[in-house]
Amino acid sequence: MRRRKLDRQIDDELAAYIADRAEKLVAAGVSPEEAERRARAELGSVAAVKDEMLDAHVASSWVDGLLKDVRLALRRLVRQPGFTFVAVLTLALGIGGTSAIFSVVKAVLLDPLPYQDPGRLVLVWNELRSEHFAGAGGLIGLALGTLAVDRVAALAPPGLLPSGGPALDAVVVGLTALASGLCGVLFGVAPALDGSRVDLAAAMQAAGRGGTAVAGRRARRMVVTVEMAVGFVLLVGTGLMVRTFMAVQRIDPGFDAAGALSFEISFPAARYAGDAKKAEFARELERELGALPGVSAAGASTYMPLDDYSSWSSPYGPPGTPEEKKRRAEHRPVTPGYLKAVGAELVRGRLLEDADETGAPVVVIDEGLAAEAFPGLDPLGRAIEHGRLKDGQHEYVTSQVVGVVRPIAQHGLTEPERGQIYMPYGRSPQSRLAVVVRGTVDASVARAAVASLDSELAVAKVRPFAFYLDRAQRPARFTMVLASIFGGLALLLAAIGIYGVVATSVSERRRELGVRLALGAEPRDIMRLVLREGAAMALGGLAIGAAASLLLARLLGSLLFGVSPLDPATLAAAAIVLPAAALLASWLPARRAARQSPMASLRTD
Amino acid sequence: MANQKSDVLRGTLDLMILRTLELTPLHGSGLAQRLVQVSGGALEVGPGSIFPALYRLEHKGLVKGRWGESESGRRARFYALTAAGRKRLGVEKENWEKMVLVIGRVLS
Lengths: 605, 108
Description:
The complex is a heterodimer of chains A (605) and B (108).
Chain A: H1 2-27, H2 32-43, H3 46-56, H4 62-79, H5 81-110, H6 121-139, H7 149-155, H8 170-196, H9 200-209, H10 214-250, E1 260-266, H11 275-290, E2 295-301, E3 313-317, E4 327-334, H12 338-342, E5 346-349, E6 362-366, H13 367-373, E7 383-390, E8 393-405, E9 420-424, E10 432-439, H14 443-453, E11 459-464, H15 466-508, H16 510-518, H17 523-556, H18 568-595, H19 598-603
Parallel strand pairs in A: 4-9, 6-8
Antiparallel strand pairs in A: 1-10, 1-11, 2-10, 3-4, 3-7, 5-8, 6-9, 7-8
Chain B: H1 8-23, E1 26-27, H2 28-38, H3 47-59, E2 63-69, E3 75-81, H4 83-107
Antiparallel strand pairs in B: 1-3, 2-3
Helix pairs in contact in B: 1-3, 1-4, 2-3
């Protein structure tokens, strides 16, 4: 109530003053419009004077002082919606991004067990290294964004997150608020201290003559230059992650993931005791599935390629090789149709056939094993001694190589793998089947086919065969998306920072620029002058960022695949994108400065 | 709370306003004019400084504003010195004279 009254009183008083003053000027021979304008100009910014008058009426105790500051801040924020929007946006991006990333990190690392798969922690740590790299930037208020936690979680590699998944909980929100608060205080106090050291005389001069506080400008520029540098580093990181993802995407897994259905069967030990029973079931199942309409091939092995299982290798060598000189290979029992069903690429010879289950022992090997076992020789027709399981017991058998296929990725896309020996399933049956059916086939139809052979057998993990390749590509995709978010936000915040500094400096230099215009400078010259300020910050940031990138590149090495940490194309792209964004951000205030009327800028104050 | 001693400029303006109002109550516009006149044109204090100063002084209870009618028949707020203001003016004047004396000695 009191405030409202005071507010109105000030309005009245100032209006009366302006009217009175204008009247006197008119009396002195000035035109009415000019008189009014001049009366206002003498007063200066009515809003600022009013602020001061209001402030003068608030008692100066500590609490009152604080309230006064808050009120003043609120008044200014309301009066400058553009600035408010940018400030709030920057904060929101920072807080939102920090919460989202912290939620994920907390879900992955900090929340207690159980993890779905503790073995994945190693992977997590590797990924975290990039998050540190980016996350540190986030915590100092740079690189993070308002992304929904679920969106990030949905991209995470399976097994990375506990079943509940990440969620914004009280701890996350609390810590984020604390971090934001600390940052706010930290970055708020610095300018405030700066403000309390203002030289009164200089400030008065500046207020009267439209001068500028040089020191403040330098500090702002430094912050933005650092922002640009961090932005550059993050952009390079993003670029490298995108290139890594593209490279991983391009890796030939050695099989055709699309257009096939897969499922798994475990034989109950009681009813499938001997090798013969398992082999017979596998043979019949392959025949049954292969005969379904729309199916071009069907077959089974013991595990899906790229499924998460431990590798089982055993020794092999040319016949008669002493045990200590044998190398190790993975032995994979496959039904005759399996290699065709997964879409393996035959390089030489032939694939396995039905007759191989019983006749002379033959195997198909992959190129990796061929190069290792028979370097420079034609592997076809050669004999190798290798292991098999006969009724659960390991024994050696000598087989003839009848075909060579391109290596099929079994354990990962980017790691080197052991050579593979594909032998007929009937010669080394195991207690499980990983079935792949190529063609358009419904899950229920596949289940019915299994049930027609053994209605009590459980069918598990019925899913598109593409699932396994997709899952193997996820870590790269996850890292790429996170890096893209950080990179994009860093770019955005750097641009906002440049915009803010250039716009502030334009308004501070309005009088100077106006004088230049009045003295005949072309708008083009003014634009160049303003753009140069933005460009200086961008180039400074670029130089620092490039140096930092070169130093930090090695840290990223473990996350990269198929691209050098110093990839010239990525560095070049970042070196183009960042200055372009900076130029765009400086463009708006520059244009405004160039378009102002010289008279208008001289009048204000 | 009193202004800090270092705040010379602000204090000086306050002192000049108090001194001017000692003679007769004035509204903001009149006060600005009077300061120009009295200083022989050497001093030009804009209304942008005068109004906040008046409100500051009013808040401290040194002056008191009252709506009245200006010489041109307009509504205007006239400011008059309060008893506290009069007392404060005495103190400030004395301080000022002491300071002028000291500075004069130092400079001569």
